[in-house]
Design brief:
TetR/AcrR family transcriptional regulator, Homeodomain-like_sf, 8 helices, Tet_transcr_reg_TetR-rel_C_sf, 73% helix, Arc Repressor Mutant, subunit A, mainly alpha
Length: 197
């Protein structure tokens, strides 16, 4: 008789099964009954920890991204210039989006359109706050370095993330390093510097 998994072993099994189902069949195929069966646990265990399959999918995908390159919010983007920091941050953000994959990112659109969309709205608000925190750190360093003087609005702080997310969701074209550089040089930096007048 197989030993029932517990603790980290169980969590890793649940995450692995969730990611595998998503990769093979799409997010619509992810449900607690199937994950419980394939990971060797019960639906009760899953319901106790995650309010919905979407919440579980989110944690499973984030776990993989964090294993590969750590948490974006903890990263140090110290290149010595505002432009360099923005390029470094958006390159890391792009890699995280690539790891999470279009299937998951497009699942967000499907979840937002549901009547009961509390989980995804909570998640998006958490992402927004994390993104603001990341940009505030970068812009604070730029102020200390004398590159900018004035504060920047939240709309401009969120602009790089929202533009990349839009491209990732709506286009099948890959996000290249050239695209990131063009985004920084032609959109983000001009928007930041426009608020320094």
């Amino acid at each position: 008789m197989a030993t029932r998994k517990t603790g980290d072993d169980l969590t890793n099994a649940i995450f692995s099964v969730t990611r595998d189902i998503m990769a093979r069949e799409g997010y619509q195929a992810v449900n607690f009954a199937r994950i419980a069966r394939e990971s060797g646990t019960s639906r009760t265990v899953l319901y106790r920890r995650w309010p919905s399959p979407f919440a579980l999918m989110t944690e499973a995908i984030q776990d993989e991204a964090h294993q590969v390159q750590g948490k974006l919010v903890d990263a140090d983007f110290s290149t010595g210039s505002l432009r360099g920091d923005l390029l470094e941050m958006l390159t890391r953000y792009k890699h995280s989006a690539d790891i999470m994959g279009r299937t998951y990112n497009r699942a967000i659109l499907g979840e937002v359109s549901k009547d009961d969309n509390t989980d995804v709205l909570t998640f998006l608000n958490q992402i927004k706050q994390s993104n603001l925190f990341i940009m505030e750190r970068i812009l604070s360093k730029a102020q200390l370095n004398g590159e900018i003087n004035n504060t920047t609005t939240d709309m401009v702080k969120l602009l790089p993330f929202e533009l990349l997310r839009y491209h990732f969701l709506m286009s099948d074209e890959p996000i290249t390093d050239d695209f990131v550089a063009e985004l920084v040089d032609e959109v983000i930096l001009p928007a930041i510097m426009n608020q320094q007048r």
